[in-house]
Write a structure and sequence with these properties.
The structure is a homodimer of 153-residue chains.
Chain A: H1 9-33, H2 42-52, E1 59-60, H3 61-67, H4 72-84, E2 88-92, E3 100-104, H5 106-127, H6 133-151
The structure holds a DNA duplex (30 and 30 nucleotides).
DNA sequence: CGGATATACATGCATTTGCATCTATCGCCG
DNA sequence: CGGCGATAGATGCAAATGCATGTATATCCG
């Protein structure tokens, strides 16, 4: 793309992060503007999606919060709204009196699947023409590694 | 990381995007919580940063909007706030009566550099232990390619 | 040229967000 | 056991956000 001379670790790290960030912004913009997200915001879908992937069906609010880029209070209120819309169900955690467990309702699961199908196709339409399968696998590997390392304090 | 069987292109694309997205969230969380972003939000810093990288010094509002994950109206107001704080300067575009040009003020440039120094060190502290230099270069290449392909309609 | 359509940015308004703080429960340690 | 700091989540409130729309300018096309 550009001629890039030997760089300091600091500069390389900064450029890598910036590129990752901008790529995320570019893709996100496209996805958000698609028809899939008229009835529900992407953040909200993300909650439904995360819940759908949860083996037990139930997820703690604070665990959910780790996945979502929202403050604790904002997530609390967002879940409140989703509950009002009948998409998720709350229940006090049995083993922790402070905690709240979340689960998709039938309607929430339905909506997640419906949006999910479109969403996944939108993603594929963006990724496949942009990167080869091998490149995607490598990008997947690198971002998993990065996330793992960053998450692990 | 996990055993991953041969996957359909759709599934691969979806997993790659999800991983990219979650990695971005994980890194972003860490960066936002750092001490560098007490005086200014990350989005706001991003504006200052983008302006600082602009060769002519002046940038159109709509071009800026392409880089930032914000609606047009929100950006408009954010710039208004930055102007009130004395960090950026506005000027009507000479060649387009509808447009507005933006530039960092001296104070804005100062602040950008000051935050930037800390920010860049924070980034390095996250990236370098997570990925080798070669991996970072590859991640940089892949995200640039992705962004390029997505941006180009 | 002139009217129609598109683009750039601003603004009113309802919704969403985050910070600070509050309440309740948990876990630890004397 | 009992007190105390830590953690989970809720809430008041000011600020930020996005949608719809408004205004002005630009561009296209007959």
């Amino acid at each position: 793309m550009a001629d890039r001379p030997a760089e300091s670790p600091v500069r390389l790290a900064a450029e890598t992060w910036e590129s990752l960030f901008r790529a995320q912004v570019a893709v996100m913009r496209r996805l958000q503007s698609g028809p899939a997200f008229k009835s529900i915001a992407l953040n909200e879908y993300d909650v439904l999606f995360t819940l759908s992937r949860c083996p037990s069906g139930w997820l703690r609010l604070n665990e959910l919060n780790d996945h979502i880029l929202l403050s604790q209070s904002s997530l609390s209120r967002m879940v409140e709204r989703l509950e009002k819309r009948g998409l998720v169900e709350r229940m006090p955690a049995p083993d922790d009196g402070r905690g709240v467990l979340l689960k998709l309702t039938e309607a929430g699961s339905e909506l997640q699947k419906q949006i999910g199908r479109i969403h996944v196709r939108d993603i594929e339409a963006l990724m496949t023409p942009s990167l080869t399968a091998a490149e995607q696998r490598e990008l997947l590997r690198l971002t998993e590694k990065l996330r793992g390392a960053v998450a692990r304090h």
